[in-house]
Amino acid sequence: MDVLVKWQGAAFSVVQIVFFRSVFALLPIAWSVWRSGRWSALKPVNLNGHIIRSLVGVLAMVTVFTAYTSMKLSDAVAITFAAPLFATALSVPMLGEKVGTHRWGAVLAGFIGVLIIVRPGSHAFEPVALLALFGAACIGVTTIYVRKMTRTETTESIVFYFTMTTTICAAVVLPFYWATPGPLDFAMLAGIGILGGIAQLLRTRASRFADVAILVPFNYTALLWAMLFGYLIWNETPDQFTVVGAAIVAASGLYIVFRETRLSPRPKWMRWILRPWH
Fold first, then answer.
1. What distance lies between CA 137 and its chain's CA centroid?
2. Which residues of 245-274 are buried (b: 16+ CB within 10 A; e: fewer)?
3. Which helix (H) or strand (E) holds 224?
4. Which residue of 18, 53, 187, 277 shows the fewest CB atoms closer than 10 Å?
5. What are the φ and ψ backbone dihedral angles of 148, each rounded to 5 degrees?
6. Which long-range contacts (CB under 8 A, 24 or more apart) does 256-262 make?
7. DSSP-assigned letters across all residues of 60-76
């Protein structure tokens, strides 16, 4: 999805990309609801939570998509690696999860890695990198809200109301940014939405079964794909600072997972994997 966003960002505005991302994401969401046969699952319980999560999610999508279209894909993805750090830190006040000294140290090391990537004050610094970092913070907040809302809300309702919010917000300003896509561009824009909707359903469902600190480090494999596709399509190669910084951030997240699994012989996520998924 990130590759398609960057690709289409050369010809279409972020607003239009967000609109297609949202509209076509409704297809897998509708399929999920139909498959479960529970249209009542869309009824919200925590309406305020939906509103806050959705509006912060809009900010996250717009800022991160802008970074994807304006930077090397690997650099932008590496900066968004800060999202798990924000999520881990915020899981304490917002979820009441326990984060020990070791994990706090890992979070601190991770933010040092982010500074290495962004390099504020150097000639290589790109102001849009701050936009990517802000987007990462927003993703961290939405991760926490999703985790918190799964206590009362269904997966379908969380994803549906966020998608509807982004669709409405983008549609309001879309007439000022609209450019008519050709058949191939239309297919790629639709693909952004379908892939995004599927991923969002899976990640929201996963958040029911494991703590934030366990789930989010799996995002780090995205850098490998970003580096591969960035090189093959745009001939982009990350510099040594990006690689070193991303490695530090990823190592921090993986250490968090190590601590979680060490503290519990059979962590929650493993118990859910071993039992049938109903």
1. 10
2. bbebbbbbbebbbebbeeeeeebebeeeee
3. helix 222-234
4. 277
5. -70, -40
6. 256/84, 256/88, 256/103, 256/106, 256/107, 256/213, 256/217, 257/213, 257/214, 257/217, 259/100, 259/102, 259/103, 259/106, 260/211, 260/213, 260/214
7. HHHHHHHHHHHS-HHHH
Asked whether residue 132 carries a pLDDT value surpassing 60, the answer given is yes
Contact assessment for residue 103 and residue 88, using Cβ atoms and an 8 Å cutoff: yes
Q: Tell me, rounded to whole angstroms, the distance of Cα 17 from its chain centroid.
A: 16
| pTM reported for the whole predicted model | 0.82
Name the percent of the chain lying above pLDDT 90: 36
103-109 long-range Cβ contacts below 8 angstroms, 24+ apart: 103/213, 103/255, 103/256, 103/259, 106/252, 106/253, 106/255, 106/256, 106/259, 107/252, 107/256, 109/248, 109/251, 109/252
pLDDT in tens, 7-24: 999 999 999 999 999 999
For residue 144, pLDDT over 60 is answered with yes
Q: What sign does the CA torsion over 86, 87, 91, 97 have?
A: negative
Count other Cβ atoms within 10 Å, centred on residue 101. Answer: 8
Which tokens belong to 156? 């379908």
Q: Please write the tens of the pLDDT for every residue from 199-227.
A: 888 877 777 777 656 676 677 778 888 99
Where are the chain's structural domains?
Answer: 2-274
148/142 Cα distance (integer angstroms): 10
Place of tokens 């806050």: 52
pLDDT at 137: 92
